[in-house]
Fold:
Amino acid sequence: MTPIVTFQDVSKWYGNVIGINKLTVDIGPGVTGLLGPNGAGKSTLLQLATGQLYPSQGAVRVLGQHVWNHADLNRRIGLCPEQDAFYEWMTGWDFVFTCARLTGLSRRAARSAAERTISSVGMEPHQNRAIGGYSKGMRQRIKMAQALVHDPEVLFLDEPLTGTDPLARRELMDIITRIGNEGKSVLVSSHVLYEVQALTSNIVLLNRGRLVAHGNVRQIRDLIDKHPHHIKIECDGFRQLAARMVGWDDVEGVRVIAKDRALMVETHDPDAFYGRLPSLSLEDGLAIKSVYSDDDNLEAVFKYLVEL
Amino acid sequence: MPTLFQFTNVSKTYGAVRALDDLTLAVPERAIGLLGPNGSGKTTMIRTLLGLIPVDCGTGEVLGLDFSRRQLEIRRKVGFAPEDECLFPHVQGVEFVAYAGELVGMSPIDALQRSHEVLDYVGLGEARYRKVESYSTGMKQRLKLASAIVHDPKLLVLDEPTNGMDPAGREEVLELAHDLAHNKGINLIFSSHILPDVEAVCDYVIVLGRGKLLAQGEISALKQIHEQAFDVRVKSNTGAFIERLSAQGCSAEPNGDLLRVRIPASASPQILWEAAAAAGDQIRHLRPQRSTLEEVFLNAVEKP
Amino acid sequence: MPIIDQGYQHWSGELSGQAWRWLAITRRGVKTALQGRWIRLAILVAWLPALVLAFVLCMWGLVERQSDLVETFKPFLTGLLGRPVVAGPREYRVEIWTLCFHYFLTWELGFIMILVLMAGPNLVSQDLRCNALPLYFSRPLRRIDYFAGKLGVIATLIGLIVIGPILVAYSLGLLFSLDITIVRDTLPILFGSITYGVIVAISAGLLMLAMSSLTRNSRYVALLWLGVWLITGTVSVVLIQVDQAQRSRAVGARYHRWDNEQFLSAELDAAKHDWRPLVSYTANLRRMEESLIHTNAAWQKLIELTPVGQRGRLMFNLVDTQYPWYWSAGVLIGLAVLSACVLNLTVKSLDRIK
Structure:
């Protein structure tokens, strides 16, 4: 995997306040989620990556080149910022067209690019209205359009889905997934974990300016030793099943949830545990109706790693 | 079950836009989730409930009170936490909540005593003595919630309460909303775009679209269980597993990072365990397929 | 039970009637205003004319009683007011009290404008800026309660520096005269002054609220208020000067002297139909003051006491307030109605607010 965005020992201070602390991470093609509580340094990271800030220490490279003061590179980078600041009197079309022209496209190319992008975000019926009259979701979509209009190779999205209703959210998520599948690099920063989970399983987790975890969500989960996996198993003969499970070495706890006819099992070795299930289920009276871990997802990883 | 609010043939037009279109519905006293795309009339409906705007035609009641005639009484019994950030500036947290109570008609002493109680409940400890401008987003949201319940309303209306909050803050607000709705006997209307939040807090939803009612009902009833369809994830070697399943007469298709498997009518999930055992594989996720609230919503909205 | 539930408790207390809702807003507004260091200073300084008024009234009380304490001042008073006044003070009591209150109210008007400048702009524009209106109107609050509450803030502050001092000074003057007939003679002055205070409070309050509701930026409101106060005043004065210059050119330079009584009489006649003072906001207020406590009558009586050649100095005071009082009343009422319309348009309930 050729990294598209690289941070090498990057630190950034604002006076005495630390924004990013010795961050070394490579971000490759596809969609990557950027997560962290408030004040973790996500906005700083995005600003460093788009060349708006100069790192106090270390080097930031995008597409192999230093980003700072490199205007040409901006033609290949798209940014959808979090702030909601537009020229309110411009129409949606004007805005996207102007942004296209600003990236260096010729008039004709900019026109067709603007048309294409606006219809892809579903704003065609509203493109001739002033932005001042848009709802929050429409503004968000126009912001997305201006980030996509010049067909960038790297896309940075800061909270792209806030304020959008589920319909618009689905459309925008489809766009993001499609771009990721085309081999471009998309970095999505968001607080809404279930959205990030639907987009990608590759995450970068920050806390207090430092990198906490980087990689596939499930792999990270497996590595968190401190918290045993919680697995819920529904079975008619649940008490019998519980009696069997308590005898296993890797099982640390079994809780009976009588009203669901289910068990909540804690285990520190999920691999061994799951391995035993198929044969167990086929035994008499122990047919397992459902098994799932609500612990094996992004929310759990976030909660366990970012213990405040 | 007593009705929380009901509308009968209510219409409201803003210029060329028909915000509410002959809307008729009756909603029981529960924790209600209010869903709908942008421009569906959710905000207009909330404002009509509070008696803040007059309707062009139609009648309706909130908590048994006519919303075109007894608006002030309604607002005494309803607490509203609006979506946008709003403050009475340059006051301490506890003054903010006390002022909110005084505006409803509480005496200053009652309001102050009650505001401390309510701030304890939402979990703003020492921070209540600091000015509201210095609060984080999560704290401001909880403060807004506190100011909405200071006068002990019978109905609490929350408009996008978790917008833009980080996961920790969101969890706190949702926990409070759930507790108020289910354990403390306050009716709740929860309007949000973030469907998992609605699911976590409410048990009844109404879906609006273009000013009309598209769907309503208990969440558990709307999310149908498909008897013979399951979501499955295996550890590795998906191909071999699928082959085995097809051999048994099941169909499988990818669904995100899970497999959606349909088993024949007479079979039970054991068929999947057999296939896994035979393939030497582990099943790490097995659940009957249930539509998510998102599917319910999209189905309701995209119906022709 | 030994362990008490710390969670949410229900509350069943009494809610006050709708009529008192504005009081909560006024209370909060006054408290916020008084937190400002400069406003507290302004109020303190605004009481200085009140102290002077009280002092003068007490002095007059002593003069009336022909007390020994004021013997040393008698020559000075004789020179200022004329022998008849000092010789028989009781007859001129009403006039002197009227003029004392007149000077006090004139000074105080300046302080009122300053105080409204400091406390006023934030009243509605801050609520607009911080988007607090949904919080107000989602409670059982009508717009009239909101406006009454905000108006009450200005009225309270103005009351603090006008009505309070008037009452205190009146009582002190009464005490120092030790003569109950004063009440019979000067009660109209008291009521007139208090009515004037109320008129100023309502007029300035509505105007400031209307300006404050026009924009989110309090600084523009402050500038607008300064404009209304100072610029209209200046414009009015300029217009009057131009008019006077034209008149005196027509008549001849000989008469253009402020102690020439013929000239002054001509000026007074012309002033009876002069609309130019109406341009200045504060001049309108002053005109109302005159009509409420009848300063012109007081001046007139004093003028009759002075010998003919020396009346100019006193007649000069009459020039500003010759035109009919109902013209000013009309202007003030018109401004109040305009302010109310502006408020009605700008602060709507949540119907149009996003």
Q: What stands out?
A: The interface with chain C takes residues 47, 50, 52-53, 71-73, 75-76, 78, 80, 82, 84-91, 99-100, 102-108, 110, 114, 117-118, 120-121, 147, 149, 151-152, 179-180, 183-185 of chain B (CB under 8 Å).
